[in-house]
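During the first year of the project, the team set up a workflow for recording each protein of interest as an amino acid sequence followed immediately by a discrete structure-token representation. This format lets reviewers and collaborators read both layers of information side by side without switching files. As required by the reporting guidelines, we include two representative entries from the current panel. The first entry is reproduced here exactly as it appears in our internal archive.
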Amino acid sequence: MQEEKPKQLLHLVFGGELSDLSAVEFKDLESLDIVGIFPDYASALAAWRGKAQQTVDNAAMRYFIVHMHRLLDPQN
């Protein structure tokens, strides 16, 4: 019997300094911090929390989790 692998639900974690705190517009696109691509939400959330904690003193710095699996397969 073949063991079934869990479905990959890819998530991207990235961040950068916002130019305006009321909108999601980055001050400098070339300095975005691409943390990585993760195989599930739990590991992406752990990476997001770590980066958010490291930059807690900079109010303009924001990190985001993008659900890449939703972009790759929008019908599911």
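The second entry, processed by the same pipeline in the following quarter, appears below.
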Amino acid sequence: MKMKKRNSENQSLSEVLQEFVDHNKLQSGLDKVSVKDVWYREMGPAIEKYTTAIKLQNETLFVQLSSSVLREELSYGKEKIITMLNRELGKDLIKKLVLR
């Protein structure tokens, strides 16, 4: 089975992959995985230990924490956390952070 030739023979692998992602509407799912990865990497193992669920819905990141003390502490720095996560994601994906 032959693959359909693209318009440009000089497309980079990243361009071909992005075209595939766009064509198959996969970006939303990839963003959800990226947000989880970035949360754990940037917030560190101490916070990861208390994080029980992460869900990106539209532009809101919902984070379930098993510690009410940590939830209270993090609530004071929501804007800073949003800025840090968006910077690491390379785009403004998160507009609101809800800690549960």
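For the second entry, the following points were noted during internal review. The CA atoms of residues 64 and 100 lie 5 Å apart. The mean pLDDT is 87. Both points are flagged for discussion at the upcoming steering committee meeting.
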